[in-house]
Amino acid sequence: MDRTVRTVEDVLALLDGLFASESEGADGRLATGDGKDFWDRFYTDRTRPVPFFVAKPDENLAAYLDQGLIAPGRALDLGCGAGRNALYLAARGFEVDAVDLSPVAVAWAEDRAREAGVGIRFRWGDAFALPAAELTGPYDLVVDSGCFHHLPPHRRVSYLALLDRVLARGGHLALTSFAAGEGGMGSQRSDADLYRERDLEGGLAYTPDSLRSIFSDLIEVELRRMRAMPPESALFGVTFLWTALFRAG
Ligand SMILES: C[S@@+](CC[C@H](N)C(=O)[O-])C[C@H]1O[C@@H](n2cnc3c(N)ncnc32)[C@H](O)[C@@H]1O
What we know:
The chain is an alpha/beta fold and 249 residues long. It has a single domain (8-248), classed as 3-Layer(aba) Sandwich (Rossmann fold), CATH 3.40.50.150. Helices cover 31% and strands 20% of the residues. It has 8 helices and 7 strands. It has a 7-stranded mixed β-sheet with strand order 3-2-1-4-5-7-6. The longest helix is centred in the middle third of the chain and has 14 residues, at 103-116. Mean pLDDT is 94; it is low at 22-33. S-adenosylmethionine (SAM) is lined by residues 31-33, 39, 52, 79-82, 84, 99-102, 105, 126-128, 145-147, 150.
């Protein structure tokens, strides 16, 4: 018999366990959402035709900069994968920290940064479990392209707590997530049903109103579908994602 729950963090860890079939990290701790082993395998073969393996930044991120909605400062790329947005921001004058659950992804991102001759401070681990000293902030920009929608519902609590801790006053969150509805992607099961099924079904779909409600402590600057970008473009764009820019008041 075990009686392990004492703190809120214990509750969150217990709920992680419901989705934990593949998510035990090397240090024995459970990672949140899809697990480290899953993502390590995902990034092992760099030649796979995965859309976001291209070394191109999100079209909306480039648009925010070009329109003057954001300006160079300190940035955190949350769930950076192979680093395409982190690289772009560093090249555009940001001082970039980047974190990913997968050391295999981070090794690839480090190779890309070396080749491009840009300096980025990489970390690997569960962004929501790293010691506070590893992600100190304050960041003028937190970029999350495709990490948030892989988290189980209860980890939104950890996500918002991280934002609260590291986002500068007046700083921005640039988020892309699976879009619910026509032409979208991701699971449309209710939060409650995800726990009943104990399956995140490859990522969660969000409506604009669900994003507005979850990030209601922030001010919406823009929320739209990502624009499709042709293969010859220097930018990445697929239409099954929302792109959102929120500002901390
Ligand atoms: C769909 S991929 C997107 C990667 C990258 N942002 C891009 O757009 O190319 C989602 C990424 O989130 C990372 N991730 C998931 N949960 C995480 C967590 N708890 N902490 C840090 N990274 C996480 C995964 O390892 C994966 O690389």
